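Narrative of activities, Objective 1.

The group set out to show that a structural description can be obtained from nothing but a protein's sequence at a throughput compatible with the screening campaign. Below is one input-output pair from the validation batch, recorded exactly as produced.
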Amino acid sequence: MCRYLCIISCREVKNESSNHKFDNLQYRVDLAAAYQILEHLGFEEGIDNHLTLRAPSSNGGNDVMLVIPYGLHWSQVTASQLIGVDFESGETIEGKGTVDPTAFCIHRAIHRARSGDGAKCVMHTHQPYATALACLKDPRLLMLHQNSARFHGRIAYDQDFDGIPDMDENVAEGDRMARVFRDNEILLHGNHGVTAIGPTVAYAFNALYFLERVCQLQVLAMSTGRELSELPEDQVEKTAKTWPKYDYIAPLFFNSMKDVIIAKGSRFMT
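Output recorded for this entry:
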């Protein structure tokens, strides 16, 4: 159902206009779906946190940063309500509304730093279990489960929290976070939250979802007060090398979640 509706919407645009509008709409549909799916899962925090996507502009010009207009609840995001922001000026050049300045400065820095490796989607949340882990003195993800090994060697840890940056500090803080992130898939911000990055919305969402699940397992296991059973290093290495074979699951899972929210009445594709 979801995939059919999205394809019809995109075909209508393609028949009436040029390829860049068709491509821009496809990106919008996926990012809008991600906002509503993450809200459905309880990963949102009020009107804060932010998901961004580097996308072709609707007019065929330079790429834009698609993002939620500040003040809109994640459950209400639709493809047409997302705004396209100029990567240089931060001005809204597609849609109506403004971007949260903190989101712009931090996401722009990460997008710029990772543009060479094909990473296009950046998701920052304060989802509960990953954030709980980030609030520990030692926030490391322990290799307790086969799914934990999926993140072996793919997480950066930022334990230099220095308060919420003011407007003048936003640019420098974004650059600092991008340096700490390096080429990893996940950045765990001490006393703050988590950021995931991926080549598409589906892959970034997949990483964020499974990170939350393994963080939940770790928090629950630690709460028993009993000795934890960590995987031996050789098993961790072996399992970590196996995980890329299952990358094909990411778009399948993401599309299945689109169907879930459509069944609830979502019109994210509009």
